[in-house]
Each structure stands twice: as C-alpha cells, then as structure tokens.
Write a structure and sequence with these properties.
Length: about 450
C-alpha cells in the first residue's frame, strides 16, 4: 500500500526535515507484518514528494502466532491487505513518521506549525460512496476520489468499493498525519490489532483540536474502537464532557428499536424451522446470529453460513467452536460472494438473506438474483430489508439519510414489492410480503420480509 505526500511551497524539500527522512536516500523500517520504505520520486525547490510504501506479507499474517491462537487474521492468503490503505498503514505512519505525527522537529522546530501546500494520495482505500467526503471535507480538505472498476477489462461489472483518493489543503503536516491516523482505521473494517482502553488515549491525542467538533464524531469514534460500546462511550464523554450521552448502538435502527434485530432473526428462524428442512443457507451471515439460532433451536442437519467478510467468519468460527461438537458439526462456514455462482449452495431446501441486499450496489442485485434464485434455487428463500418509509420516525436521521453507513439503498414497501414480484416471476417462485416489527399507521413496519417459494413446491 502507498501513501504519497507532496509539498508545493517554496523550499519544498523542507518536507524532508519534518519527516526526518533525507530526500537523497531510501529509508527502510521493519514492521511486525512486513517492511516500510520511504523514498522521494521528486525533490525540487518548488515541489517535493515523499512516498511511504508498506509491503505487507499476507502469508505471514495467516501464519502468525496471533492467527494460530485464534486472534486476528483474514484467514486467506489472497486478500486486500497488501494494497488497500488500512490500520496497517497507520502503524507504519506511527513507526516511520512518528516525530512528524507528534509535531516534533529537532532541527527546524519553527516549521512544525507552518502551513504547507500539501497533497496526499492514497491510491487504494475502501469506503462506501460519499463517506470519504463526509469525513475529510469538514476538516477543510479538497477531496478528489475515483472509484476503481471491479475489472478494467469488463466495465459492465461496474465499480468496486475501492477509491483512488487525493486530499489537498494548506495546513501543518502533523495535522494531515493525525487526520489519516484516525480516519483510515475508522474506514477499515478489519482493524488488525487488539482494541483496548489504550486506544482511547491514542484517539483523544490524535483527535485533539478537531475530532470533538467533527459532524461525524460519534461514527468515527465507534468505528475506530470497533464498536465496543463501553470504550466508545468513554471516548465520546472525554471528547465532549458537557454532552449527555445516549447508550450508543451500532446503527440508528438498533438505537431506536433495540428489539427489532432480534425480532427479525427470531421470525426468520421460526419460519425456517417450521419447514423442517434438511439443509439451510444463511447468506450474508455476518457473525452468524441466525446460524447460531438455527443450531440451538432446531435439529436441521446441514446449515451453510456464507459471507464475503473473512473477519466476520473468523468471529463466527470462534463462537461455533464453543458449542458441543454434535451441534458444531452441523454448520459449514464458507467464504464467498453472492454475486458469483457457487456450487456449494446448490441443493439447499431454504435460504435466508437477512438485511443483506441493501448492502449491495443496486447494479449488482441482478447478479445476486441469478446466483440465489437461478443457480442455487432453494425451494424457499427469506429476504428481509429495511422499510425506508419508516425512517421518518427516526429523530436523529437526516431527511433522505440511511440507517447505516454501509447501506447502498433502502426501499419503500412499494419498491420492495416490485422487486420481489419481478424476481419471483423471472425464476418460477411465488412470493408473499410480510411486515416485521410494530407497524405505524402511515409509515408501515420498520422492516419487511419477502418469502419466496418455488411454484408448485
């Protein structure tokens, strides 16, 4: 992964003094997960660019002591860690640019607070559409992003979640580094190191002077601390001690209706159990809340739990390993994507997609429909998704906003019915729609469910 920082002020090579890295040399530093190098592709009086290149060893990550002991590891030799900006990059920044990050410069201390004409580039960083601007623009950055295609040779496949990001601003260097130190791991859903109370101190220190007033302060804090509620509440209390804090949840939906998530899962689990199926696929299973319900509450012989997030599957495996072997052996956990045909899903009696479809870009839904309803073709499919009309009842949700930062869309009842009717007709299913949660007379239920059954089944 790469981070480049360019200074375009006169005497631009002063950047080397601030970074404590001479432009005429290549600098190397060993990291627990690989190697960091700093070099200067350009070093002139009017423009100077320093590049931090972090060479992550993905094989070493999987084979590390932490992975063997059940700690962090993506679990696959092929992953995005070598090239996507992540928590690994912030560790490298702290190790290699530590003096600049901590606003120190021994030889030229007067330069620390001097604003520079800076441009920073992260060629690959993962984020939902629009989130990068919400994080960096309030800090005064000019933000330029370009989404990478899934495959440059196949433009019809659409765009990925990875962006080429360029930030421009006139500000002291240490401020830029501190913003990256906090916001990059907040965007990273697979933060690789243990998050404990000491991370609060890091967040407070690096967020001093800007985080407490940031409009996305609470989201940044929760993501940086990996949604550990006690740590997040403590951090926010220290950032804004004058405010009365709510008991923060992972999403607006859960904060406003703490029983809805359980109600949704319990309803789907009960409906599946009533079918007495021989096999079930929990698609987009996350950390396996539905899978674990089915294991504990039913005797279904074969349950497949599939998700595209390897870290979520690691957590699921850890929890399943605590169950008796007679129960654990009924579950098969697989890494996979719902937009690619997968023979492992064939032959299941039932499948569930609980709050999954809204996390996909709309242009990928057709691929999901083909994978689930045409190729896997279970006899019964349960699909739940939020009801957008109900959002008007969330006091803290801005008009037009979505309930979760990772949602790509949320449908009204009419839009969901149109989609369900079309999918059923195209693939030989019958479909019924049902409310989930207490219904409002005008806005309907908070969530909605479509139950697909193969015609004649």
């Amino acid at each position: 992964m790469f981070l480049s920082i360019t200074n375009r002020r006169p005497d631009a090579t002063d950047l080397g003094h601030l970074l404590h890295k001479h432009p005429a040399r290549v600098h190397e530093a060993s990291l627990p997960f690989g190697l960091a190098r700093v070099f200067y592709p350009q070093a002139g009086p009017d423009e100077c660019t320093a590049v931090l290149a972090v060479d992550v060893d993905p094989v070493g990550l999987v084979r590390s002591d932490g992975a063997r002991k059940g700690g962090w590891a993506l679990g696959q030799y092929v992953n995005d860690r070598p090239y996507a900006a992540s928590s690994f990059l912030t560790v490298a920044i702290s190790r290699v640019f530590g003096t600049a990050l901590n606003a120190r410069c021994t030889k030229r201390p007067e330069m620390v607070e001097q604003p520079l004409d800076l441009e920073a580039r992260l060629p690959v960083i993962q984020a939902p559409e629009g989130l990068i601007e919400k994080l960096f623009e309030p800090l005064g950055y000019q933000v330029e992003t370009r989404r990478h295609p899934l495959d440059p040779a196949l433009p019809a496949w659409g765009e990925s979640r990875y962006h080429d990001l360029v930030l421009r601003a006139n500000r002291p260097l240490y401020e830029l580094l501190r913003h990256l130190f906090v916001l990059v791991p907040a965007l990273d859903r697979d933060k690789h190191y243990w998050v404990g109370r000491d991370e609060i101190d890091k967040l407070i220190t690096k967020g001093e002077g800007w985080l407490s007033d940031h409009p996305e302060r609470d989201w940044i804090t929760r993501r940086y601390l990996k949604y550990q509620r006690r740590l997040s509440n403590e951090a926010i209390a220290r950032l804004a001690p004058e405010e009365i804090l709510p008991d923060h949840a992972d999403s607006l939906e859960l904060a406003a209706a703490p029983t809805l998530h359980d109600h949704r899962l319990d309803t789907v689990a009960a409906r599946i159990a009533a079918l007495n199926p021989a096999s079930v696929a929990d698609l987009g299973c996350g950390e396996g809340k539905l899978t674990r319900r089915l294991l504990k509450q039913t005797r279904i012989p074969r349950i497949i739990a599939m998700d595209v997030a390897a870290r979520s599957l690691e957590i699921l495996n850890e929890r399943l390993d605590r169950l008796p072997e007679s129960v654990r052996s009924r579950a098969t956990v697989i890494l996979g994507s719902l937009i690619y045909r997968d023979s492992r899903l064939a032959g299941c009696d039932a499948a569930a997609l609980v709050e999954v479809i809204e996390h996909l870009d709309p242009d990928r839904l057709e691929a999901l429909e083909t994978v689930v309803f045409a190729h896997a073709a279970p006899r019964h499919v349960f699909v739940t998704t939020p009801n957008r009309e109900y959002n008007a009842l969330f006091e803290n949700l801005k008009p037009g906003g979505l309930r979760h930062a990772d949602h790509r869309f949320e449908w009204t009842r009419s839009e969901f019915r149109q989609w369900a009717d079309r999918v059923a007709a195209a693939h030989g299913y019958q479909v019924t729609l049902e409310p989930l949660g207490e219904e409002h007379p005008e806005h309907g239920p908070p969530s909605q469910m479509a139950v697909f059954t193969i015609s004649g089944g």
